[in-house]
Amino acid sequence: MPRIGYARVSTLDQDLDTQVARLKAEGCVIIRAEKVSGASREGRAELATVLEFLRPGDELVVTRLDRLGRDTRDVLNVVHEAEQRGASITVLDPHVSTRGEMGHVVLTVLGMVAQMERRFIKERQREGIARAKAAGAYTGGKRRLDRDQVRALHTAGHGPSAIAATLGCSRMQVYRILQGA
What positions does the domain Resolvase/invertase-type recombinase catalytic occupy (predicted)? Predict the structure, then answer.
């Protein structure tokens, strides 16, 4: 029975090495990893790939349940999809598997805890931003594009597509900047 590992971190500056090493140590022959938020299933191509290729008897292994997702419904949907393919899911910390009936109950509870944790994180983030704004220290997110450069390229006759290609951004970002001018 092949063990397939799935590792995920939320941001580009986070490291996947610890999860990947643990999955290898657990005997995973294939490991798929990605750097994307677990708030929803949207945009999680590696998870979709793993689920698509699960075969009867396969075992999907993750280090913690929140690596599968932070929304209870999403986690339960992943479990359901794996089971529809005849595969099981094993969480290493705490060790829980869907092979037994009790594993489903534990995963449901852990999924609810992960969702609650995500809500707490967002609440703390909002509170921190509110405090920073009140202290005059919050200026918002860092701008990713030089707005003057976008306007200069537009003034020079470049279209939004050409500007986006030159600056390595989306056309929508260019349109937003030009509309705000």
Answer: 2-136
